[in-house]
Amino acid sequence: MEGVRRWIGAHPTSRVQTSNRRPSSKVEKHQKTHQDPEHDHRSTEAIAKRLLDPIVSNEEKAEYQQYIEQCHFLLQAPPDEAEAADKELYEKFVGKAMGDVYDWSAEVPLNFYASYAEL
């Protein structure tokens, strides 16, 4: 780094760097090239507005309603109507979503996980 400073100091520029441009013209040019966030759907402002005011289509609402009805059917169905494995799997995912079921098993000893964490 010291060598670079010496090299720059050995070759000073004799001219003074000045700008004849008006500062406002730069700002005006930037404002002209900048798109309005309403029209630029990729801008942060437009994305934030969409996320703060989400719109759910009727197709999605119908799909969600179908999942709710399926859940009620699986939970209230007699054992012979719903497959036991499907019902257990569904209950596991519902429990995980609610925070009741964890991804890890309590039966696995901690040294099993520690072997993966060691460097």
Automatic annotation (TrEMBL):
Annotated Basic and acidic residues bias: 25-45
Region (Disordered): 1-45
Record's protein name: Uncharacterized protein
